[in-house]
Write a structure and sequence with these properties.
- The chain contains twelve helices and 17 strands.
- By secondary structure, it is α+β, with helices and mostly antiparallel strands.
- The strands form four sheets. It has an eight-stranded mixed β-sheet with strand order 9-16-15-14-10-11-12-17, sandwiched between helices. Strands 1-2-7-8 form a four-stranded mixed β-sheet, sandwiched between helices.
- Helix 8 (230-239) links the parallel strand 10 and strand 11 (243-249).
- Helix 4 packs antiparallel against helix 5, helix 7 (201-212) runs parallel beside helix 8 and helix 9 packs across helix 12 (381-390).
- The protein is globular.
């Protein structure tokens, strides 16, 4: 930063997760602000964490109410979209997905603008690790009228999203088709999901995709934390005609395995949720069409999420979804999420996408009745009770 004083750096983190512990993201980044006036750090604070909840919930558990969960890294006109954070294990032994999209100014500008808009209604941090509201914002996300904050934040995002779509449509006049436009073979559609603000673009698109899949098509669906919403479950089981292979973390590949009580029960909670869905498949007679798999690789944890869609009769995917959502309750209703819908006719890219999912599934094993009897799949009684009342927080 000292060698390039004109370089701008913007970081958007989650307030609760970024403040966790004595040494955290905030203490680490405060030095950056001290050394560079062009560096800005913003902390999104969910409007669900306020009042008694904010006073009583301890660190880590306050994150259950909602997070800034988008994972976008922008460098000039290129960006990386992923489901990964920047902590050490993601660079060593935590499995995730990463897409680098180079020289795409439109996409980079869209996400830069989106981050700026979310930053507007987030806290801004100074070099002394103090936070205050953005200079263009007056509503506190953690105090005051929560409904007013939600309405204002919702309008901010919707106005921005609509302006981006209007710019893409242009003036409405017929555009001249040149040779370059005829050679386009890949399309990217960025979608966002912010359930706290009743913004459901990604949920709506994913729901329609599940329902529209024809007989003979194949879907590979991966999630680091399996907890499908009733809407997704219904569309996959009762409406879609496609074959599904659903990949999730084995309990030993769950990042919470070995954690202290009560966080150590989280792998068992997701095992229970998977078992409930497994039993639903058997009861509906769809177990032959929808298979479940668990990722297990020695010393590795699993955090990958996304979807690969194979049209009938084709052996490489036409569509992939890449980003932060896990297709569960948190992704749809609590967290700020984004993912790209990538549609491609390019045979080399389609083969690369096929090989990507094949590598992930090569470290998996099918989920069967007998597996739930194994010691590492047994679910304590207290986890059953927690899931019964708090399923929507997972």
């Amino acid at each position: 930063m000292t060698k390039r004083p004109g370089l701008e750096v913007k970081v958007l983190l989650d307030y609760a997760r970024g403040s966790r512990g004595k040494h955290n993201s905030r203490t680490m980044l405060s030095t950056l602000i001290q050394t560079s006036h062009s560096s800005k750090i913003f902390l999104y604070h969910t409007p669900s964490l306020r009042g008694v909840r904010k006073k009583l919930l301890p660190q880590k558990w306050d994150e259950l109410l909602g997070l800034q969960h988008m994972k976008i890294y922008i460098f000039d006109d290129s960006l990386i979209i992923t489901g990964a954070n920047l902590s050490n294990d993601y660079f060593t032994n935590r499995q995730d997905r990463y897409f680098l999209i180079e020289n795409s100014s439109d996409l980079a500008d869209f996400y830069d603008g989106l981050i700026s808009k979310v930053s507007t209604f987030s806290f801004q941090m100074d070099g002394q690790n103090r936070v205050e509201l953005h200079s263009n914002w007056t509503l506190d996300p953690s105090n005051g009228d929560g409904k007013e904050f939600i309405q204002a934040a919702r309008k901010t995002i919707l106005d921005y999203y609509d302006s981006c779509r209007s710019m893409r449509k242009g003036t409405g006049e017929e555009e001249e088709i040149d040779e370059a436009s005829l050679e386009i073979n890949t399309w990217l559609f960025p979608l966002i999901q912010m359930g706290s603000f009743r913004i459901n673009y990604d949920d709506s698109a994913t729901s329609r995709l599940f329902s529209a899949m024809a007989s003979g098509s194949i879907v590979k669906l991966a999630t680091g934390y399996f907890n499908l919403t009733p809407n997704y479950s219904r569309r996959i089981i009762a409406e879609s005609l496609a074959t599904f292979d659903i990949l999730m973390a084995h309990p030993q590949a769950n990042g919470f395995m070995g954690a202290r009580f009560p966080a150590g029960g989280i792998p068992a909670a997701y095992t229970l949720l998977a078992k409930k869905f497994f039993e639903e498949l058997k009861a509906s007679g769809q177990g032959h069409r929808i298979k479940m798999f668990e990722y297990l690789k020695s010393s590795w944890t699993f955090h990958a999420k996304g979807l690969w869609f194979y049209p009938p009769g084709e052996n490489t995917p036409l569509v992939t979804l890449i980003g932060s959502p896990n297709f569960g309750y948190r992704s749809v209703y609590r967290d700020l999420e984004t993912q790209l819908y990538l549609v491609t006719k390019d045979p080399n890219l389609r083969l690369s996408l096929h090989n990507e999912q094949h590598r992930l599934y090569s470290h998996s094993q099918p989920l069967e009745d007998k597996i739930f009897l194994a010691n590492d799949h047994l679910v304590p009684l207290w986890v059953h009770i927690v899931i019964r009342f708090f399923k929507n927080y997972f």
